[in-house]
Design brief:
Number of helices: 17
Distance between the termini: 53 Å
CATH topology of the largest domain: Rossmann fold
Radius of gyration: 20 Å
Order of helices and strands: HHHEHEHEHEHEHEHHEHEHHEHHEHH
Helix content: 40-55%
Strand order of the largest sheet: 1-2-10-7-8-9
CATH class of the largest domain: Alpha Beta
Number of domains: 2
Strand content: 5-15%
Bound molecules: ligand F0G
CATH architecture of the largest domain: 3-Layer(aba) Sandwich
Shape: globular
Length: 365
């Protein structure tokens, strides 16, 4: 379906998949030409896993604000404008805030974002500021921020653009459509980080609906469904523990969430797909973060690297079989979190005088 659109120039997920997203007639897209992200082979990671598996990376960092949130935000903001909203609000660990702020700026409406104190990566705060959002920093965590904005949105004062807004899910389904379009069928495994659990909900809905859609069209063999493998950080793993975590902690601040709004849907996605939700430690996340950048040349933020750490854990546990096609969703750009990058790779730089001999020596020549 998208081949012709790609040839004519990509103009975002709403144009590419309007029939499956289902925005009301007359709703004008607010778009930054998001989506259409590449699915890049990662043979170095397969080698690291010690297995003959076909690993692909869905590079969601290449969306306009550097994360997958743009897919859902274009749809949620378009719908909000259509119904007359003048203000959009969200709670966020950073990426949703950056995306909401960008699309609000694009649409010419106001945006307020509520974020937890001290736990949002620098690049994400910089983005929200640059796009002109009102930034509210609470003395609390993401879960408390979400409770507050839901209550405010319930009064009708603003449109809520967190993933509890069904339009966000409609937009984020498009990543599943793109994977099927590119591979010609569903992969064996779809591996992704889980925070508030909107994305795993959207992927699973997307794979199911696309399978049914292509089945109805009868134009090709049905793509089938992947098994879903979701990974939480060990210090913020309420679904794995089976109970909310009051004070979640992890280096992967994007998924520092103790009581996911789409908890039930995430469990359904794992169960119905014959998959699972598991955890990875901060040490595993940071090891995967360095491995990904140094073996594949792909720089993803720590939360995204839960996918990579998760895949390596699956390999160790014998869950992957030779020939399996495994898609790792890399949800956000490594540049968003320069502080983690610098602290993880401390010692990677040397200083010297400016003369040729000194530079040459410093290079180890
Ligand atoms: N990866 C990144 C980089 C994220 O920013 C998020 C969520 C996730 C994974 C998890 O996705 O919540 O749908 O399960 N970030 C949200 C935010 C919470 O506010 O930016 P999820």
């Amino acid at each position: 379906m998208t081949t012709a659109i790609r040839a004519a120039g990509w103009r975002g997920v709403i144009e590419a998949y309007s029939d499956l997203i289902g925005l009301p007639a007359g709703c004008r897209p607010v778009t930054l030409y998001e989506g259409g992200t590449p699915l890049v082979p990662a043979p170095g990671l397969a080698k690291a896993a010690g297995l003959d598996v076909d690993v692909r990376l869905k590079l969601e960092a290449l969306n306009p604000t550097g994360s997958f949130k743009d897919r859902g935000m274009t749809v949620a903001v378009s719908a909000a404008i259509h119904s007359g909203a003048k203000l959009i609000v969200c709670a966020s660990t950073g990426n949703t805030a950056a995306s909401a702020a960008a699309f609000a700026a694009r649409a010419g409406i106001a945006c307020a974002v509520v974020v937890p104190e001290g736990k949002v990566a620098l690049g994400k705060m910089a983005q929200a500021r640059a796009y002109g959002a009102r930034i509210v920093i609470i003395h609390g965590n993401f879960d408390q921020a979400l409770t507050a904005v839901r209550a405010i949105a319930d009064t009708g004062a603003a449109a809520l653009v967190n993933s509890v807004n069904p339009w966000r899910i409609q937009g984020q389904m498009t990543a599943a459509f793109e994977i099927v379009d590119e591979l010609g069928s569903a992969p064996d495994w779809l591996v992704l980080p889980v925070g508030n659990a909107g994305n795993i909900t959207a992927y699973w809905k997307g794979f199911r609906e696309y399978d049914a859609h292509l089945g109805q069209a009868g134009t090709q063999t049905r793509p089938g469904l992947p098994r879903m493998a979701g990974f939480q950080a060990s210090g913020a793993a309420p679904i794995v523990r089976g109970q909310a975590v009051p004070n979640p902690e992890t280096v992967a601040t994007a998924i520092r969430i103790g009581n996911p709004a789409s908890w039930r849907q995430a469990v359904d996605a794992a169960t119905d797909s014959n998959g699972f939700i598991d955890e990875v430690t901060d040490e595993e996340i940071l090891a995967a973060y360095s491995l990904l950048a140094s073996t594949e040349g792909v720089f993803a933020e720590p939360a995204s690297c839960a996918s990579v750490a998760g895949m390596l854990k699956m390999a160790r546990q014998g869950r992957l079989r030779p020939g399996d096609r495994v898609v790792l969703v890399l949800t956000g750009n490594g540049l968003k979190d320069p502080e983690t990058a610098v602290s993880v790779s401390a010692g990677g730089a040397v200083e010297c005088e400016a003369d040729v001999a000194s530079v040459s020596r410093a290079m180890g020549l």
